[in-house]
Amino acid sequence: HQVYQTSSTVQLSFSTNVRSIHQSSNIPFVAKGRNDCTNDSKSSLRILSSVIYSSETINYLGFVLRSHSLFYCSVPKVATRTFLTFLTYLNIRDELIPLLTNKSTISNLNSQIKANPFDFNSINQILSYPMKNGSQPSIVNSISILKSFLSLLMDFNKKNVTDFDIWSIYQRKTFPLIRPQTLSNVSQIFSSNFTRVIFVRHPLERLASAYVDKIATLTKEPFSLYDSIRRAICRKYSSFYLTVVQHNFYRVHRRISKKIEEPCHKVVPKFEHFINYIMSDSVISDVHWYPYSKLCYTCLFKYNFIGKHETIEEDLERLLTHLGLESKDWKNVNYFRTGKTRQYYKSMYSNLNNQLLCTLKYFYKDDFKLFDYRLEDYLTDKKIIACSPARERQLRKTRNKLNLF
């Protein structure tokens, strides 16, 4: 996963909470509430075009299904693998296979992008199908490959199915037509029949989950992005983890070869140190803990289907019904089980001081307000955290210098 800096084109704030409600319309959830977005519709459309065609972030997290008039912003650590599986299934079934079946359409497509609409080699690797002489499969074989992939997606929760990383498919740009950048007219996203989807989670639970998954797990590939972050935190707070001899290792070795086993290679830093580190270094822009209100340009896209991780089974079932997918066909009972309870995540915040909690309260300010969450919901002693305006001004000044807000 790459670390992306959120574009500073749109930095908008919100004044009122947005709640998800049920109503008898063609869209199961509708976001209600007034916001302080000052852009008029024409201005918003210009900004939207700029964001979609230039932002790496929105084209990493954003997905478009033309066949279902749907835009989805995938917030990391909010059951994204689950929903991306459904999205991929629909993209193959309702867009790629019909496209490949229509010879005139594929001919016209090839003249435009000089390539087929997906990466055959990548799909073959996922399915473990050998490529004969390294040649490109025919269109007939391509449809067969995609149908095999559909079966794999339908059964992805079964233990006997070869595991695959759904994110890697999109990192390799295997299905490029699903990216927002491929839209010829971005205004269609705001049409009345378009569903703009986002799933959210309590910001503090999402942050804790990112720490557990990305930092506190030692099974990650050595010297990967998050392994490097973990080691960097250990080195910064070395007095808490290393002996004097181990600390001196870093004085002698200014540059550490991958062949050398450094003292921090098996150290799991404390949650407190992780937060301190990402709140003071540019690594804060990582998509797994950056505010989703900014990652997904919430004010700009005005999502009209808002699902919550706290009620994800019900919300996801409503969305699948809206998309014409019956949940009984997917056996999705355990798709979003993390193995950690909400109480476990809450306990991780019990030892944080008020200054650090105020930093988090300010950093996730828009996420809290927009989606009706409170920082105090994750404090085990139920206390109210009062943060001084001076502290908020200081944090804003620091973030502006780093171009993080």
TrEMBL record:
Any GO MF annotation of the entry: sulfotransferase activity
EC number: 2.8.2.-
GO BP term, pick one: carbohydrate biosynthetic process
Presence of the UniProt keyword Repeat in the record: no
Bilayer topology term: Single-pass type II membrane protein
Keywords: Carbohydrate metabolism, Glycoprotein, Golgi apparatus, Membrane, Signal-anchor, Transferase, Transmembrane, Transmembrane helix
Keyword Nucleotide-binding applies: no
GO cellular component: Golgi membrane
Annotated localization: Golgi apparatus membrane
Family named by the database record: Belongs to the sulfotransferase 2 family.
PANTHER family the UniProt entry points to: CARBOHYDRATE SULFOTRANSFERASE
Annotated protein name in UniProt: Carbohydrate sulfotransferase
Lineage, broadest ranks: Eukaryota, Metazoa, Spiralia, Gnathifera, Rotifera
